[in-house]
Amino acid sequence: MTTVDKIKEIEAEMARTQKNKATSQHLGGLKAKLAKLRRELLTPTSAGGGGPGVGFDVAKTGVGRIGFVGFPSVGKSTLMSKLTGTHSEVAAYEFTTLTTVPGVVQYNGAKLQILDLPGIIEGAKDGKGRGRQVIAVARTCSLIFLVLDVLKPLGDKRIIEKELEGFGIRLNQKPPNIYFKKKEKGGISMTNTVPLTHLDLDEVKAVLSEYKIHNADISFKCDATVDELIDVIEGNRVYMPCLYVLNKIDQISIEELDLVSKIPHAVPICAHHEWNFDELLSKAWEYLDLARIYTKPKGQLPDYSSPVVLRRETATIEGFCNNIHKAILRELKYALVWGSSAKHNPQKVGKEHVLADEDVVQIIKKV
Description:
- GO terms for molecular function: GTP binding; GTPase activity.
- This protein has helices at 3-16, 24-42, 76-84, 131-138, 153-166, 201-210, 226-234, 254-260, 277-288, 317-324, 326-331; strands at 64-69, 101-107, 110-116, 143-149, 169-171, 178-182, 188-192, 216-220, 238-240, 242-247, 266-268, 290-295, 303-311, 332-338, 347-349, 359-365.
- The chain is of the alpha/beta class.
- Strands 2-3-1-4-10-11 form a six-stranded mixed β-sheet, with helices on both faces.
- Strand 14 (332-338) and strand 15 (347-349) form a beta hairpin.
């Protein structure tokens, strides 16, 4: 029996089982089994497992990586060509793009790498089509553009989200606040700082026993579900922001456009006519959470033409120095900062100082 068959069997059993207090333990065990089988699909164990597939591995460039994911013929390649000027094969039939096509778009002084991924088909998470390679590349992105046909957005959105979730990609979610650590002995010790409405100790034990874990400390700091607990145990989940790009708005009425605009995290566009690209790029910038830092040489005006662009989590004086050159940090005496992160202009700071978007920094070296 193949892994895919086992997955289908478990999914069928879960669909048959009624959800209530008596069956919750059994369902928790089934969900854990399902997660383990999905992991096997992600990492083939056969000797001739093969590589990632021809044309799928792309070197990272720029400060952010945006992956276009969607069904065939929703306009991903047209959008890519108009945004970046990179030619990605465009035609009126499905599956025109067969490999990953990279391009770069310049925005706010930053280089953003754009990847046009081949169309996903339903069942990709079970190994159908080239879905496995497509989603493996999607896992390396900083932001996902889920490109949808505006005439059927919600049905397609649900299917693709299910495919991505099957591969451990969580869209627009934060990692659950659960502390989990295996230990040598002492059984399962469970604590919670908030009331748990979805889980109890027996369900947690059922999930852990499926992973052959009988000794562990587990602390819930959020009202977690069984799925979130499994995500923490698996430890290979990727949490990333996602924008739903609703393409082909030239084919719907103004009233329909008002309606689809209410979908959370959605940006309606028309790739063919280049409508609403400015909102798409500004939203992408916001979701990538980047900060532009301007340099100021001593005795000169700040250089606003080429900012140092940092991810928000590395936007400190230390990250700023390392981005320019590793040797600068060793010679750093202090830094002067102008901008919204400074209490007064300029503020004298050390390497731990957290920078804000559009701050100006002058590095003072040791003599």
